[in-house]
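Batch job 17 of 40 flagged for manual review because the log was empty.
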Amino acid sequence: MASHRRPKQPSRTRVTVLTATAAAAVALSAQGAQAAPAKPSKDEVKAKVDALYHEAEKATEEYNGAKEQQTELQKQVGAIQDKVARGQDEVNTLRDSLGSVASAQYRSGGIDPALQLFLSSDPDTYLDKASAIDQLGAKQTDALQDIQAKQRTLAQQRAEAAKKLADLEDVRKTLGEKKKAFQGKLAEAQKLLNTLTAAERAKMQEEELRASRAAGDRVNLGNEVPASQRGGAALNAAATQIGKPYVSGAEGPNSYDCSGLTQWAYRQAGVGISRTTYTQQNDGVKIGRSQLKPGDLVFFNGLSHVGLYAGNNQVLHAPKPGASVRYESMDWMGTFQFGVRI
């Protein structure tokens, strides 16, 4: 007869271990699901990257401004130091001259004038010499006063140079901070771009190039009269740079940032404008969007970006890192601030 034994029940300890293991697995699975959010789409990445590029461009323009200020301060310090050196040479020459006169008087023995007159075999000649000595004394007094005045000027110039050097050091610190700021934003943007596949990045670039070609076609269709002969010449010069890369802080001729391109273009037209977006806004007359003509400067996004109006609602500009000088519709440029006619 078969034996009907009860199956052996698992021990309480074993059940507890199995239950705990299962619970831990469920918890880890839930944590894993939370730790892996959905990958952002290509359009979301592009929007975030463009925002970071705008922030980087703002820091770049501030860096350019500090760099320009540094160059000007260096010139001022150099000029003051040259003045100080020349002034010190003049003081040294006057001191040497006075020293020679004093030595000659000492060697003469310093005899009392009345006694020299009594002993002189030629009183008339002595009186002529005495008159010359009196005149020399007056010249010495003038020379001493001249030395004192020059020393006061030298002290003022040295104090001015010291202040300029302190300002220069502050500007150098600002340069470092701004450079670090825009490099950080660019690195953050690149990190985001790296989350896309190679195919997605290629598609994004192709879309931008297609839009740029269409913008160039619209410029040709517009056939608008330039703001001025020089404005037209600047726009034509900028058009020869299409395809050259955007590089933060670059002024040409191999690469540009936005204000570097506009400055270079106007230089080719024989017009000198300043270096940054924040100063270029003051290089001409401000105008509204409806007044724009080819060659006018156009400013966007809180003055962090500038380009050249090309006509028919299109802009020629150096857009952002990873892109090249190109045409673009104003509708894709961000917030329009105003135009400036040089």
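Reviewer: the log was empty due to a logging misconfiguration, but the result itself is present. The first helix runs from residue 12 to 35. Unflagging and moving on to job 18.
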